């Protein structure tokens, strides 16, 4: 190769390399495929599937919808890099961090956003176009039993746990249901029965729920219940059409000698508010013990806020004391203000303290104990408590 040829060849090589660099720089950012997807979390070494849909061709307009049975929960998507997405779980202080891979899959993590929260993140992988949940089409095994009906569930944990009730419905291999307890319910779960094994999962924004079990010869079952990043417990199930939860109106009551659970607590505007402020107006009051992070509280708020707007002119007041995942007032004002904006809440939401039932009982010392989020305390025009209610289902 002569000198001129070498120079031309070298120049061509430089041009090709430079052109490749320009092409790489101008590469169009990756985005997700519209339609239904199947994601799989890794929870305590178990694979926990969930289904979702992307609708919209660009991150400025796309909606991310979690799908469980007949239920859909919508969330907005934000691009944080050319190949990365951030999906905030609405008022829950958690999010999905997702990376779009070159093969079209999505990988990422479910993370709590609470400052200094050290709970482990949950990794996940998702593939487009897969609508099944647990078992691929054509690979079903004949069910060993029909699990439809009401089930009494005995839970085994490190500390005593009140029994729960399972309401299940089975159609062939498909299994759906809800788990109810004095603390709330699981929302809709979806799963499958394969031979003598069954699985259920649910994900609506808070940590995913996963149940797996084995059907015994006597048609009872044994299994495990995992609440995502929170805990994992053993359970036994026995079909019982007469199973009932404790009377929810009798779990919490006013201690003898007390009139109402008064409190001076910080509000969202830097001031303080007291229950007696509303009572002085001569109005009946619903005192709500709630939070911006707990599933049942969110759905209760979504129902309560419009009812209050409709009836506030009739002499009814609501005060919703928020108990959050951190004890800091500024953090609570951030989460509770998001809740207020999301549901156009027109009643006051003072901050109680950290979301711990023992702490709630100390914050409201006139009550015997705090059992569940949310709890409603109805106080009449005379300042007397006329009703307590711990909500089981807001679906």
From TrEMBL:
This is Peroxiredoxin family protein. Pfam families: AhpC-TSA. InterPro entries: AhpC/TSA, Thioredoxin-like_sf. Residues 257-385 form the Alkyl hydroperoxide reductase subunit C/ Thiol specific antioxidant domain. It comes from the Bacteria. It comes from Chitinophaga rhizophila.
